[in-house]
Amino acid sequence: MKNAHNPIPKGEGPILKIEGLTVDFLSNDKPVRAVDNVSFHVDRGETLVILGESGSGKSVSTSTVMDLIDCPPGDIVSGSCLLDGTELSRLNQEARRDINGRRIAMIFQDPLAYLNPVYTVGRQIAEVFESHDAARGRQARANTIELLRRVGIPEPESRVDFYPHQFSGGQRQRVMIAMAIALKPDILIADEPTTALDVSVQAQILDLLRDLQRETGMALVMITHDLEVAASMADRIIVMNAGKVVESGLAREVFSNPQHAYTRRMIAALPHGDAAETSHRRSADATGETLLKVEHLTKEYVLASGAFAGKRTFKAVDDVTFEVRKGETLGIVGESGSGKSSIARVLLRLNDPSSGKAIYAGENIFEMSGKGLVAFRRKVQMVFQDPYGSMNPRMNVQAIISEPWAIHRDLLPRSRWRDRVAELLDLVGLKPEHAERYPHQFSGGQRQRIAIARALASEPELIVCDEAVSALDVSIQAQVIDLLADLRTRLGLSYIFITHDLPIVRHFADRILVMKQGQIVEEGPTPTLFGAPQHEYTQSLLKAVPKPKWLMSTEAPSATPGELRARRARNGGMAG
Amino acid sequence: MFSYIGRRASHSIVSVLGLLTLVFFLTRLTGDPSALYLPLDATAEARAAFARLNGLDQPIPWQFIEYLKDLLQLDFGQSLRQNRSAMEVALQAFPETLKLAFVAITLSSALAILVGSLAAARPGSLFDRVASVASLAGASAPDFWVAIVGILVFAVGLELLPTSGTGSWAHWIMPILVLTLRPFGLLVQVVRGAMLSALASPYIKTARAKGVRRTKIIFGHALRNSLLPVVTVAGDLATSLVNGAVVVESIFGWPGIGKLMIDSIIQRDFAVVQSTILVTATAIFILNIAIDLLYAFLDPRIRY
After folding, report:
1. What pLDDT digit, counting tens, does each position of A303-334 carry?
2. What pLDDT shows up at residue A274?
């Protein structure tokens, strides 16, 4: 094992070179091509972003490099992976194991799932040292504490003995990063490292990654579907679609002058630009009568109550007052835990409020009961973040969409159901024959369309969208938002659109509430709020949206070493 | 945590009292003990005297109140058959059952964890398939049948092992193997299933990306996370063993609490039946608390 420590001599040239890689996955014994003839390289110290939407095969090639593909069901058909000039597939298993964590490290999207729940974070980080015989016992622990301090975990001496669930999402990702940089690898692969995080936490993690890269000189391979994150990190970029590399080049050039149709479409879907400019997605006239008026709404949750400790409460929603007008889209923006979803749940009477009023069409929602409540629930519908989780997997689309009619009997006679389902499917851009299928047979975007059709079935006046597009790919997001905007005009709907993602509401919402810790910190028409944010928190949220790397003026030399090298490689050394 | 144990204890006292009430009245439905303990031609006076002596002449609800009063003074009644304290009889038999249960559950858990983990490490391999078939057979074989076939083959046929009773180490072999078989079969399936899902978890991918060695991934990361369902099922099985493996103890003439219970019921030795119930109920309560504490120990996310 001793000679396995450094089996690969360090040399010149790209640190990682992948050529002609083709990987299949067997499903029902039929091979499905996940990655098709993919070639790319990573230079020392540079940041390469692999951009693509879900299912584009963007993580498969890096997983192959790290030997994380199980065969079967995986099948590496052809191709070569050269790490520092050494063909990886020729190494034995022990040598490949030793490369992982020592020379190439990886961090993942959801640090809670990717950390072992039953071991302390200290033990999991120390394991990296132990697995590579770099340090043990007290020395490993001291190194671990130093790493935790470096990645910005406060009080690392005591936090080292905490379990993953005792950290926040951002801190967990910091722990993952500490684990990855423990042995100062040459390459850090980051697979959607900030997708599950709030925008301000995302900014901190991206900063940390940039700092660490500068310190250690490691190459960073970042896999993401988020164009803004891609632009803010990348020296070079490769775009993947359906298992193929469709475009590659310097980040600035790909973004400013996309060549491939797919890249163009993706960049066009990006909700960027000036919010003050008029948008076709915003409603033309939002000065209608008041539909919903919420006054002094408060929702408290009782935390632990012990025999001796008094009752402790947590105010999820704290004295919130706002109104929604007919035909208007109200955006509610805030980070996780800001109370925005609690408002939705209380307004739909899924939870009871602690105090306050909500007047809908002249009646207080919280005092409704019996028939009045049933009628109200018909008029106000909800679209959830995860359409798959909120649909019964054993019901087909026909049954899912017609369920409201089974509940609200007077809405539609049974003989008309089939036709109406076909109409609704057509309205949301699906085909009538989809009615016989089941939720798992659809893509994420299609499922969200079904959820919208189901919401429309009861002919609502107000639809509450709780992170309704957050789980979707950028181009699909744009389609669903367009659909919602179109339905608003055609059917006179109003929306409460709850999201943590500022760019999405920018062109869709007429008015925006910004929430923090249960309170509304700022409220105003969208162009004003984006153009001249008043509250400090709103400003910090807006600032946290990643800016393209080539526009960042804080770092004096505009081109990083990686970019320079990449440019050199582009001009000369691309032949290979 | 102590408040949790206290809460559990107070709940358990209620359910044990309910159980004792039920057992008290049900045993009295089995008939009059004097019919068993006196000669067939005993006179009516002798029967009356026997009933009076043992408090059986009173109305049954009155007997129950007397029983409760005695319980408060920790007097659990006299065994009719052995003419000594019923609790003494029960406590004498209980360790025999405990020994058997402890060895059987330890052996089956240890074997099942080993076999189940190795099977899950290479799903579809020959080892996995053999383990699956064997564990299914073990889980489905009725223990009375296995016990009788065991006696036929090893005691009667080959004359290698004693048919029943206690005394030498050889007396242990068959009861333990019979009692281990079913828990082993069930646990292998549980371990294998839990290990398969644990090995597919994201944190296993992290461990591989860190370069952790394969044995450590299987036994350090995956197994540790699979133990919770295993403890649940093993605890359930342990409960049924502590309860007295009535059939197996009877077949092998093992002087444990299960055999005592069935003998006392047949002989209408009411006080002993009630005492065995009290002993096993207490043991099961302690076992369940221990399992709950083990959960919290195994999974840091569980706090009471």
Report:
1. 655 545 556 778 888 899 999 988 889 999 88
2. 46
B178 and B281 co-located in one domain: yes
| Residues B187 and B264 placed together within one structural domain of the fold | yes
Query: How much is the pLDDT for B207?
Result: 93
Q: B97 and B67 in one domain? A: no
Interface of A with B (CB under 8 A): 66-68, 97-102, 105-106, 108, 110, 113-119, 127-128, 131-132, 163, 165, 176, 179, 307
- Give the Cα separation of A248 and A237 in Å (integer): 6
Nearest to A544 by CA among A504, A498, A499, A501: A501
Domain A2-269 carries which CATH code? Answer: 3.40.50.300
- Interchain proximity B211–A131, CB inside 8 Å: yes
Whether A469 and A444 have beta carbons less than 8 Å apart is answered as no
Contact flag B206-A176 (C-beta cutoff 8 Å): yes
Between CA B189 and CA B198 the distance in angstroms is: 14
Could you give the percent of chain A with pLDDT greater than 70? 88
Q: What does the alpha-carbon distance between residue A324 and residue B282 come to, in Å, rounded to a whole number? A: 61
User: Comparing C-alpha atoms, which of B102, B173, B111, B117 is closest to residue B138?
Assistant: B111
Residues in B closer than 8 angstroms to A304, CB to CB, are none
Q: How many CB atoms lie within 10 A of CB B34?
A: 19
Q: What is the pLDDT of residue A497?
A: 92
Structure tokens at A74: 């995986």
Over its length of 304 residues, how does chain B's per-residue pLDDT go in tens digits?
Answer: 678 888 888 888 888 888 888 888 888 887 777 777 777 777 888 888 887 877 777 888 888 888 888 888 888 888 877 878 888 888 888 888 888 899 999 999 999 999 999 999 888 889 999 999 999 999 898 888 988 898 888 888 887 888 777 778 888 888 888 899 999 999 999 999 999 999 988 999 999 999 999 899 999 899 999 998 999 999 989 988 887 678 888 888 888 888 888 888 888 888 888 889 888 888 888 888 888 888 888 888 887 7
Report the topology of domain A290-544.
Rossmann fold (3.40.50)
Domain that holds residue B99: 90-298
The CA distance from A512 to A332, in Å, is: 6
Every domain of chain A and the residues it spans: 2-269, 290-544
State how far the Cα of A299 lies from the Cα of A421, in Å rounded to an integer. Answer: 37
User: Are both B66 and B103 inside the same structural domain?
Assistant: no
Which residues of chain B does A114 touch, with a Cβ-Cβ cutoff of 8 Å?
Answer: 202-203, 205-206
The contact set of B with A (CB < 8 A) is: 3, 201-203, 205-214, 216, 221, 224-225, 298-301
CA distances to A128, A145, A163, A255, B171 from A139, rounded to whole Å, are 13, 10, 20, 46, 53
What are φ and ψ of residue A169, in 5° steps? Answer: -55, -45
- CA neighbours closer than 13 Å in the CB half-sphere of residue A507: 20
Say whether A119 and B224 touch across the interface (CB within 8 A).
yes
**Closest-approach residue (CA) in chain A for B212:** A131
Predicted ipTM of the assembly = 0.76
CA of A128 to nearest chain B CA: how many angstroms apart?
6
Contact B210 A110 (CB under 8 A): no
- Cα A442 to Cα A433: distance, rounded to the nearest angstrom: 13
Residues B248 and B152 in one domain: yes
Q: What is the pLDDT of residues A193-212, one digit of tens each?
A: 887 777 888 888 898 999 98
Is position B292 within any domain? yes
Mean of the per-residue pLDDT values of chain A: 82
- Which residues of A fall within a CB distance of 8 Å from B201? 113
